[in-house]
Amino acid sequence: MQALDTSALPRRERADAIVTHLREIALASKVVLQDPDRAFMSTRVYQLGDVQLVHLRRSGLFIEVTRERDDTAPTIAMMLGSRAQATREQFGHTIEQRAGVVDMVELNQPHKTWNHSSRNGWCLKAPADALALPPVLIRRARAALLSSPLQAVYASHLKRLTTSAATLAEDPAAPDLGAATIALSRALISSAAGDGVHAREALHESLVPRIQVFVREHLRDPDLTPETIASAHHISVRLLYRVMAEAGLQLEQWVIDQRLEGARSDLASAVGRHKSIAAIAHQWAFATPSHFSRRFRTKYGLTPREWQRTQA
Questions:
Q1: Which of 29, 87, 205, 292 has CA 20 to 30 A from 262's CA?
Q2: Which ranges of the chain does DSSP label H, i.e. alpha helix?
Q3: Where along the chain do the CATH 1.10.10.60 domains lie?
Q4: CATH 2.60.120.10 in the chain, residues?
Q5: Burial bucket for residue 147 (CB in 10 Å: 0-12, 13-18, 19+)
Q6: Residue 2 — very low, low, confident or very high, per pLDDT cuts 50/70/90?
């Protein structure tokens, strides 16, 4: 998927560029810009395995896909609602966008979208085949998506992805994270469609990668505990330990290893080479500098100070 930033184009070329871009990324048959002379759009795309996380910023417009598109692979777009006013209609169901709430659109099928005002938001695009769900089940789910008990879980996951999209896309584990996101998408859709068996299986499949993303985002937080991790994922602490063990990970040791690796990178950086060991230990949520140094030496065979000096 190509990115676009109309601010780099002459004003007279921007409207045509937006229309062309939307025909490509949204399969739009019809595009109407509210104010063609002042229209703008920028898109940034972050690849996570088989899924794309797309940041959209655009002025008011109307998009319509008038017929089923069979010239490209079926694609599902999970739209994370922002505060901007927007309306989407598909299969006879009209949904008003709500901030922090996820809606779904089958891009290859007829649908209409009204962006009543400028919008700054995110969507996740996934191949429909990767969901491994019958098309009729996906279609049935849309009307009930907002009332699914997994709506809040999915929206929270999508928000976490958006907060560090660039970093996550560069991570070697990005394909695994994409697979987990597809599994969670399958769980949400199955839940909304009333298919509890698919929902439970897919939710369990996606759990460990989602926990890993959450922990990496909160490594510097001294209040990160098994209880806070479990609460954020709506599971018990007992289940948290079990699923991590099944994945071959001892929770506390894995968290410490992640913190040590972050501290090690900081100590080797241009800024970190001039920081005290105590400051680095505090930033990575170690209780005391001595505890940090002891753990560091056990893992890497050098004290933090010795490692810092070798990088100078």
A1: 205
A2: 11-25, 135-141, 151-163, 165-170, 174-192, 196-217, 226-232, 237-246, 251-268, 277-283, 289-300, 304-310
A3: 256-310
A4: 4-217
A5: exposed
A6: low
CA distances from 260 to 169, 266, 280, 284, 298 (A): 22, 10, 10, 8, 11
Short-list 194, 26, 218, CA closest to 125: 26
Say which DSSP state 132 is in. -
1: pLDDT strictly greater than 60: no
The residue behind tokens 């994922």 is 233
User: What is the phi/psi pair of residue 15, to 5°?
Assistant: -60, -45
Q: Does domain 4-217 have CATH number 2.60.120.10?
A: yes
The per-residue pLDDT for 201 is: 78
pLDDT in tens, 198-217: 777 777 778 888 888 889 88
Residue 67 contacts residue 117 (beta carbons within 8 Å): no
Cβ atoms 236, 251 nearer than 8 A:
no
Q: Which residues contact 109 (CB under 8 A, 6 or more apart)?
A: 65, 68, 69, 90, 91
Q: In what order do the strands lie in the sheet with 61-65?
A: 30-33, 61-65, 111-115, 86-90, 93-96
Rounded CA separation 31/89 (Å): 15
Cα(108)–Cα(130) distance, rounded to whole angstroms?
15
- pLDDT tens digits for range 114-153: 998 887 889 999 999 999 888 888 998 998 898 888 898 8
Q: Which CATH architecture has domain 256-310?
A: Orthogonal Bundle (1.10)
- Amino acid type, 250: Q
Is residue 241 packed enough to be buried (19+ CB in 10 Å), middle (13-18) or exposed (0-12)?
Answer: middle
